[in-house]
């Protein structure tokens, strides 16, 4: 019940944040956006699962740096530090999923087709944006690489046929990429109609899916 209430509050705050964007009250987002990752961190801390300490630490670090990045991105002048904070968050998520992979015996097979598709999509998107990136080309390219590694780490962490919670993590990683792709397109190429709302909607569901999938994996694993 406590977990359910925590998620309900999370989505209420997410909805409030999106509504503030929709009505142009961006200044009030200082009261909503910083709460989102805090609520998910509380969910992780109080989730009824026996998640090993090191796993929980990397998951919480991913949420911490995501929260810090959220706060920084509320200021247009702090875009690059915000990008750096999310860069670290994706590294924390990647380590978390790699730790699952190598403790999830037998180790899941390497899914080469997804590596190829992921790499092709990242290269195509970078080539599309490259003429518009200017001096931020290198940070954006490095960020695109690290978030694609995070997705690959999630794809390779689980035996999906008997660990369906892993799908939440993969969908969350994909939504994260979509959200960041929308940010990059709107900032460097052309603002999208309703882009800020779509960014927050995909981001909110991305983080929720990553956290719920990660905790559900350990809940089912321990119960067996």
From TrEMBL:
Keywords: Membrane, Transmembrane, Transmembrane helix
GO cellular component: membrane
Localization terms from the record: Membrane
Transmembrane intervals: 6-23, 35-66, 78-100, 112-134, 140-158, 165-185, 197-218
InterPro entries attached to this UniProt entry: TMEM86B-like
Main location: membrane
Name the UniProt record assigns to this protein: Uncharacterized membrane protein YhhN
Lineage: Bacteria, Pseudomonadati, Bacteroidota, Chitinophagia, Chitinophagales
